[in-house]
Amino acid sequence: MTTLMFPNLTANTTNKDTILVLWHQPWVEATHSAAKLQRVWLETVNEALRYELDFISTVAPIYSKLTCCMLGFEGPQTPASMAACYHSIAGDMTEATFNRMRKVSELSEDLRERIWCEL
Hints:
The chain contains 2 helices and no strands. By secondary structure, it is mostly helical.
């Protein structure tokens, strides 16, 4: 061990100080890596929550449309008009659900890629 590896060490450094320096560096590196992984995980959770909020904001108008159909705000209710309304709503819900599932399934790939980039 030379003073080039640990510039803070001098010839007067005691054995106790050397042990502290030798312990401190790996601890800082491990803590830094853990903090990076925690940041990556929190970013992924943030994206998942954002996708859920997007889904909720997409579904809210669909439920409003369903309410209008059921209460007859769009004109007199006939079996044909109710079926058309329900088919339209079912199509919108299916599309929103598939978009949600696609985005969530991509999260695991993104998380793995981010972790590998940090490592």
